Amino acid sequence: MSEKKKQPPAAAALNAARQRLSTGWPMPLFLQGAFEFMQAALFSAFLVVIPWFAVWFSGGFADRGIESVLKMGGQIWLLIHGVPLNLLQVGDGIDPSHGSAVLNFIPLGLTLIPFFLCWRAGRRIARASYTDQLWQGIIGALGVYLLCGLFTGFLVNNEEASVSLLAATLIPLLPAGAGVITGARREAGSWVRLIGFDAAAWIAKTSQHSRWAGSYVWAALCGGALAYLLTFALASGLLAINLAVHWVDVSNVYQQLRPGPIGSAVLTLGQLGVMPNLALWTLAWITGGGFTLGVGSTLSTLQTTVGPLPAVPVLAALPAGDLSYAWAFMLLPVFAGFMAGWYFLRVGENHFDDWVSTRVGSRWLSLGLSTVALGLFVGIISGLLSVVGSWLAGGSLGIGRFTEVGPDVLLTAVLLAAQVALGTAIGYLVSPLLEHDPVLDR
After folding, report:
1. Same domain (yes/no): 180, 223
2. Rounded CA gap, 84 and 78, in Å?
3. Between the N and C ends of the chain, which has fewer C-beta atoms within 10 Å?
4. Are residues 312 and 185 in the same domain?
């Protein structure tokens, strides 16, 4: 067979250039990350600004121009990313800064919008890069988001509210960074493909005692997270039931306000945006820690003191009437702890009990000590998670006495930790009676 005739270098280069023009050049990873996050920033901004424009076109902001409406939309965009707003309330008419307050209440439901957009971007970045190149796309993405926050903070300041440029630049990176990392991890399937670190290989090099201790700690951490998430799920279900029971009261508030079709839609979207906050308030309520709705208003299963409230439809579903049996709801976190104890038994990683039993001759004493330690460990993990959730769910509305809104962070964490610890101990001791060995049952 005759060999193919080699092309001259110039012709080969020309053909390669033509092929490249037809297929295109691959986009650099940092540029792709920047492009993905630019889309996320713009789309989340559109979702915030469009409702404000709808209200403006319907005459809701008749005394405002389009520039003022755009600035308000930019301020809301920063707020859903966790950036606090400094409200400049007019006091005596001489000093416009007199009576200034801080608005740092984060509508967590709206924060999920940029989070999931960045989560999607993280998956796309991970799909387009190798393990050792992923950082390029993430750096480019976060760099663009940093600039978006900086420019937004620079443009939205007016005589009504202002933001710190440093806060507007850095704080939006938190939900965006969490979204891109979790999205990239979801696409990669493991941390090994994501960052090139093989945790299993590293653990295999450690001693057996270290592996046992690590397995125990990891199982307890998972149990604490399970107890908190289950408590949150129970609180969310209780909130949904309570809203359904008081739906007539909620509808009456809508009818009294008469906001119109567009106003009703925007008001409903705003209330949906704070539903995760309300679920965390319900979690604080069932633990007994309670939450505040302004200075002097406290609601919990143990005590309820409510002052004047704004005409917000969802607030018509607040617990009222005879609450003498409300303490029974405090058993819900105990049930969540029970399930965590059952989970820990099924995992079978109670190496601390094995260690104690080798040093304490009496089995009932070693089992009691290890069970108490397990309950405390799982309860503390749930309490620490509660601190984060309660802190995110509260804040200040910056209006009148509503400078304190949200759960009692410390009391809720302490009570939840105690309830989960009790439930975990009971669950770990009782759950063997609920397990069945298929071989023995035959």
Report:
1. no
2. 8
3. N
4. no
Q: Of the candidates 286, 274, 287, 366, which has an alpha carbon nearest to the alpha carbon of residue 319?
A: 286
Considering the domain architecture, whether residues 283 and 312 belong to the same structural domain is answered as yes
Determine, yes or no, domain membership for 117.
yes
Token pair listed for 149: 């926050």
Tokens coding 438: 């298929």
Query: pTM of this prediction?
Result: 0.85
Are 43 and 185 in a shared domain? yes
Type of residue at 51: P
Q: Is residue 121 part of a domain?
A: yes
* Dihedral, 123, 124, 129, 135 alpha carbons, nearest 10: -60
- 315: which DSSP letter? G
Per-residue pLDDT of the chain (442 residues; tens, 9 = 90+): 444 555 566 666 666 555 554 544 456 777 888 888 888 889 988 888 888 888 777 777 667 778 888 888 899 999 999 999 998 754 444 344 445 688 899 999 999 999 999 999 888 888 877 766 777 888 888 999 999 999 999 998 888 888 999 999 999 999 999 999 888 888 877 666 666 655 556 555 666 656 667 788 888 999 999 999 999 999 999 999 999 988 888 888 888 887 778 778 888 888 899 999 999 999 999 999 989 888 778 888 887 777 777 888 888 888 776 677 888 899 999 999 999 999 988 887 777 677 777 777 777 787 888 888 999 999 999 999 999 999 999 988 888 778 889 999 999 999 999 999 999 999 988 988 877 655 334 4
Please check whether residue 73 is in contact with residue 55, taking contact to mean a CB–CB distance below 8 angstroms.
Answer: no
Total domains in the fold of the chain: 2
